[in-house]
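for the writeup, i need someone to sanity check this before i put it in the appendix. the sequnce is what the collaborator sent (i think, or maybe the updated version? ugh). structure was predicted straight from it, no edits. if anything looks off just tell me and ill rerun, i have time this weekend
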Amino acid sequence: MVTEFVVTAGEQPKRLDVFLVNREPNLSRSALQRLIGQGRVRINGQVVKPSQKIKPGDNIAFDIPKAEPLELKGEAIPLEILYEDDVLLLLNKPSGLVVHPAPGHWAGTLVNALLHHFQTSGGTVSTIGGKERPGLVHRLDKDTSGVMVIAKTDQAHRALSAQFKLHTITRVYEALI
């Protein structure tokens, strides 16, 4: 689906990616930067970079590919559960495990493992993160190992997210060199 905007005088000078984040709040800045990098965003018909400055009168056209319906399935991926109660699950995420589905990683993720865990244990998981991020309060990069906090209720999810945002939950990082 192609969407077009014309930049008005009050909308500059801004970077293209910042402009689009304000115009398309359903897309993250990183998702928009990916679309720009793929040549799916053009200013006055020209392929540009995310850092391109916009000016009044610029015609911005971008093509958002139609999303494929996402059907996540639980997978029996072993989880090292450190703690679990009615509202919270803490687990040790190994290095190499992708946390949530994304292009190129629709299966074999921590989310797939969590879905299997909750399906087989009869437990619940917070729905705040939607289908792709059920219960995920934060994430760790694929190549990073560490403790993941999973919310099992929406109330716990909101409370934990607030604590991460306010930095009242302390993270300690250790590196092996």
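The CA atoms of residues 78 and 123 lie 17 Å apart. The two ends are 47 Å apart (CA to CA).
thx in advance!!
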